[in-house]
Structures are given as structure tokens and as C-alpha cells.
Amino acid sequence: MFGFSSDIGIDLGTASVLVFVKGRGIVLQEPSVVAIDKNTNHILAVGQEARRMLGRTPGNIVAIRPLKDGVISDYEVTEKMLKYFINKTVGKKWIFKPKIIVCVPSGVTEVEKRAVIDATNEAGAKMTYLIEEPIAAAIGAGLDIAQPNGHMIVDIGGGTSDVAVISLGGIVVSNSIKVAGDKFDEAIIRYMRKKHNIMIGERTAEEMKINIGGACDREEEVTMNVRGRNLVSGLPVNIVVGSSEMVEALEESVMSIADAVHSVLEKTPPELAADIADQGIIMTGGGGLLWGLDHLISERTGIPVRVAEEAVSCVAKGTGKALDSLHLLENDIRNSRSRR
Ligand SMILES: Nc1ncnc2c1ncn2[C@@H]1O[C@H](COP(=O)(O)OP(=O)(O)OP(=O)(O)O)[C@@H](O)[C@H]1O
């Protein structure tokens, strides 16, 4: 059965992929994970199903996260994953191929941009456009970025934290660091190994971050039962971990994000800095939901911080909305040659 395709916005994230279809909104949100049979090179599962396999695969199966630190680390697998998600969204056979906008972190190099464009074209786009993450996040957070008014966006994803000052539809000052949600998880794994002699998996670390993690101490300590493997005995163990321990584990990562925000503010022209001081900083992305991070950045900068509504889907929504203004955003969106 042949179908008509609609234009698509994709937030191609390190942790998850979100797909926005014009007229339908966000239609897909799945982890950026692919499970592959190493012997045959066949894809066994993509997204949610593949994520369940992370850390639990037999020798011949590998569960891969093809994006690392906000950029494509495994090109072929990224292309296959994109193909799968695009097919899942619009079907396999189109009369017209869709135009696709993909969102990339503000710090990506030309080579990395090219890799995203090629993978998307290979996956079936008629034309691929790129939009920088902070611009998409700002549009998704409902800001009117076309005005001569300074806005600061802090988008904390899985692989990168993007800090940007936006005015008149463009980025004036920005910084992108490879410290975000994934580094929080790694810090928790390291902490558990050092302090408790326990090895935990990535998924457990993420659960701990979401349930008891924090950038500063809570009024009331919360705890979680954590399962792992004792490094000395090699046996499975259960221990109770408290939220104040997580503050200690995450301190260094959280501080580098606060430093990045501070350094962008230092480089911001005074008029725009005054606008930001009036309106506050907007935080988006899943990593921005870390308990108390808004509070910590606000304390460090003296500027109020607001976490955007639906912080995780903000970038995808903004990418989708940008489909309506491709002509207006031509300066920020890099066009690519279409492929046959
Ligand atoms: N409530 C929460 N508290 C803390 N972290 C969270 C919460 N919810 C999600 N996260 C984290 O947010 C991160 C994913 O965020 P998001 O989906 O915005 O990233 P991404 O767009 O895939 O990554 P990137 O933009 O770096 O490519 C993950 O590290 C996830 O563990």
C-alpha cells in the first residue's frame, strides 16, 4: 500500500529519538538503542525493545547506542535506526518522500553535520535540513525568538548540554559541553564502585538518578533499594542508598554545567544579559529534570531558572514547528542536496 508522506521533525538524541509529524504532533518517542546479531549483522530490535536488552545480551547479540556525546559514533547503525523510525512513522512506500528536519547540538562539526544529513537522506528523506538544538528548544518552549530580545536556553540532554543566548532568531553566544545525563549515570556507577564496592549497570544508575539523584540536598532524604554485584565476593547484593550520596556523586558533573552557563553569561552582550536577568533562564531536555538543578544554576547566576513544560519533548516540538517556517529560518537551517 502506498501512502502520502508528511514532513517530519526528528530530535536525534543520544538517549532518545522523538519524531514529530506535521499535523499529528509527536508520534514516536523511543530510546536510541539498536540490538544487532553480530554473526549475521541483522538488526534484531530497535528502540524500547532493544533497550530492554542492554546489558542482558548473550555473546552474539550486541545492544548498541549509535550516538555518543550528542554525535553519531556508529554511522551505519544510526542510518539503520533512522530508517526504522522513519518507516515506522510514515510507512515503507511513499508516493512523495518526506522533507525531514533533524536537530543537532550547537557544537557539532561540519563533518558530523554531513554524517547526519547523509544518514537521513539514506533513510529516505527527499531533503534533509538541520536545526541547532537550542533554537529548536526555544521554539518548543514557546519563546518568540524572532524579536530583538535576549533569551537563554540551557538544554541538558543525554550526551550534551547546550547553553545558548538567542536573539533575532539566531544564536549570539553559545557553549556545548559533553556533560549531561549520561555522564550523571557514569558518575553514579563510579561512586557506587568506589564507595560501596558495588558494580551496577547503566539502567540501575539511571533509575537512581531519576528517583534519588539531585544537584543539591533535599529537605528530606529519600532512599532507594539498589541491586548490584559485590566486587569482592562477586555475588549479587542489595543496599539502600540515600539522596545525599547522589549529590556527592553528581557534584563534579553538575558544577561543569553551572560553569558552562556562567561562561556564556560572561560573554553575553550587556543588553541581552539584562533581558535574560529580567526573563530568567529556560531549561529544557531530560537532564534538566535532575532534582534541584534549576535551583543550583539560579543560585550560581543570581537569575531565576524555569524548567520548560514537557522539557523532554521541547526540542522535538520546536523542530516540528520549524517545519512551518523553513523559509524564515533559512539562515539557521543548513540545506542539503537531495538524493535520488
Ligand atoms: N526525571 C529525570 N531526572 C533526571 N534525569 C532525567 C529525568 N528524565 C530523563 N532524564 C535523563 O535525561 C536524559 C535524556 O534527555 P533527552 O531525551 O532530552 O536527551 P537527548 O535529546 O536524547 O540527548 P542529546 O540532546 O544529548 O542528544 C537521559 O540521560 C535521562 O536519564
From TrEMBL:
Domain of life the protein comes from: Bacteria
Protein's GO biological process: cell morphogenesis; regulation of cell shape
Record: residues binding ATP: 158-160, 206-209, 286-289
Pfam (any one): MreB_Mbl
Keywords: ATP-binding, Cell shape, Cytoplasm, Nucleotide-binding
Subcellular localization, as worded in the UniProt entry: Cytoplasm
Main location per the UniProt record: cytoplasm
GO cellular component terms, A-Z: cytoplasm
One of the record's GO molecular function terms: ATP binding
Purpose: Forms membrane-associated dynamic filaments that are essential for cell shape determination. Acts by regulating cell wall synthesis and cell elongation, and thus cell shape. A feedback loop between cell geometry and MreB localization may maintain elongated cell shape by targeting cell wall growth to regions of negative cell wall curvature.
Similarity comment: family membership: Belongs to the FtsA/MreB family.
Summary of subunit composition and partner proteins: Forms polymers.
Protein name (database record): Cell shape-determining protein MreB
